[in-house]
Design brief:
Length: about 270
């Protein structure tokens, strides 16, 4: 499945003006269930009294920042949060630096970095990694770098597919992921916690996301539109009408998935503390 070209095409369309780009961020926040879960966890983290809370700033790493969706969220929640946003793609870094400068967000810096080699000892109060670890083969090196880069009692927050069929991998005819760029199908919920403990983390928590309602929402909001766009780009014209019909159902399913506790699911939210 050619997912990356679709992202690039949409990015070009919505990157024409700051208003369109911000609208695209907000649209993704509504459509993508992982954004619902990530926002919930960030607000929970921000609302808790933490060691070091008296510091004038909190430092956050957006590890694998991509198009800047979550960096935009983080920098907008508090001006006292400074975000280091890193990605491996030069064009993403240049584009995001230009955009965030244009909208006057001064509490962020985008830099190119390979997470298997990137470390800033004892700097970050929070490290956010959304849909990144499934793309990296040497995850052990990344987890060790995350541990080293956190302040004492700092938290790592990961959103990633599980091994229970994330991205419909178990339904794909060739046996691979619906999204081509993945190097692993997903994490076992116990496996990823053991890897984090092996990297040095003292405490871990993990829960399933994308239970039954979440899987319905994902197919409606992501899978079927991408399949149709891969068939013909003419579907771009029909896309607003498609979402007009399907969005109410997807929205309700996202809300249910956020509120429910799932015995299994195709996504994981994982937290770890130094």
């Amino acid at each position: 499945m050619q997912y990356d070209p679709i992202k690039k095409t949409l990015g070009k369309v919505f990157n024409k003006t700051p208003f369109l780009r911000i609208s695209f961020y907000k649209l993704l926040d509504l459509l993508l269930l992982r954004a619902w879960h990530v926002r919930k966890e960030i607000r929970n983290w921000a609302g808790k009294t933490q060691p070091g809370q008296g510091k004038t700033k909190r430092y956050i790493l957006d590890a694998g920042s991509g198009f800047g969706q979550y960096t935009y969220l983080l920098t907008g929640l508090s001006t006292s949060w400074f975000v280091d946003a890193v990605d491996v793609k030069d064009e993403q870094i240049a584009d995001c630096n230009a955009f965030f400068t244009r909208i006057g967000r001064e509490n962020v810096l985008f830099e190119k970095a390979d997470l298997t080699q990137f470390t800033m000892p004892d700097r970050f109060d929070l490290i956010l990694s959304v849909d990144v670890m499934e793309h990296i083969g040497d995850d052990g090196a990344v987890f060790r770098n995350f541990y080293d880069s956190l302040t004492q009692h700092g938290m790592l927050l990961i959103s990633t597919p599980s091994d229970q069929g994330g991205s419909d991998v178990h339904d794909h005819e060739e046996g691979g992921s619906f999204i081509d760029e993945h190097v692993r199908d997903g994490y076992n919920i116990l496996e990823i916690q053991e890897k984090l403990k092996h990297a040095g983390f003292s405490k871990t928590e993990a829960r399933y996301t994308y239970g039954t309602p979440g899987k319905i929402a994902w197919r409606l909001s992501m899978k079927y539109p991408v399949l149709m766009l891969n068939t013909t780009k003419l579907f771009f014209i029909l896309l607003p009408f498609y979402y007009l019909l399907t969005f109410p159902v997807a929205f309700c399913c996202n809300w249910l998935d956020l509120k429910m506790t799932h015995k299994t699911g195709t996504g994981l939210i994982v937290k770890a503390w130094k």
